[in-house]
Design goal:
Elements: E1 19-20, E2 27-28, H1 30-59, H2 68-123, H3 128-146
Helix pairs in contact: 2-3
The structure holds zinc ion (2 copies).
Organism: Didymodactylos carnosus
Protein name: B box-type domain-containing protein
Length: 183
């Protein structure tokens, strides 16, 4: 018996390889080749599955809030609004505290004027100069009550923007590396 050096089947390494798969270039015996085709057929099923999923997604209309980029915008908006709300709350608290402080001081001053007016009236001891002085002082207190001078609201121009502005930029490139009908 002469042994001709046959190329072995890549898969089983027992039988002679009689068929070469063009795809992977492996040599198969006839039995292993059938198995190889069955394996490829299973992989095709995976491709078809991915294909169908993508098809469904492509056919779905773009709804608001469905895409993650839209969610990203929503998150930015929520974060920014939260920041504004927090700062507004903090400023309101500060203002209420300063208004209270101002009012306490005004109440003190008012009590002093009030005493002088009452005393003047009780003692019948006043003239035009007192009346005018009291009136001026009362007006000043009233103005201070309406327009307190112990604080002001100002824009903080020295710090970098506190809410980062965002924008959407279109990118131009080939969307997917899909070859168009190459075979
Ligand atoms: Zn084989
Ligand atoms: Zn193959």
């Amino acid at each position: 018996m002469t042994t001709t050096s046959k190329v072995q089947c890549t898969k089983c390494a027992k039988n002679a390889g009689i068929t070469t798969c063009d795809g992977c270039l492996a040599k198969f015996c006839s039995r292993c080749f059938i198995v190889h085709r069955q394996d490829l057929s299973k992989e095709l099923d995976n491709v078809v599955y991915e294909h169908d999923i993508l098809k469904q997604e492509l056919e779905m209309p773009n709804k608001n809030n469905s895409h993650h980029s839209l969610k990203q915008i929503d998150e930015w908006k929520k974060d920014s609004v939260d920041k504004i709300n927090q700062l507004a709350d903090q400023c309101r608290t500060d203002i209420v505290r300063l208004l209270d402080k101002n009012k306490n001081q005004l109440t003190d001053s008012f009590r002093k004027i009030s005493n002088r007016v009452r005393k003047g009236r009780d003692d019948e001891d006043y003239d035009e100069r007192d009346l005018s002085k009291w009136m001026t002082e009362l007006k000043e207190l009233k103005d201070e009550l309406i327009q307190p001078s112990n604080f002001r609201i100002e824009e903080d121009k020295h710090r970098p923007p506190w809410i980062q502005k965002i924008r959407v930029t279109e990118e131009f490139h080939n969307q997917a590396k899909v070859e168009d009908g190459k075979w």
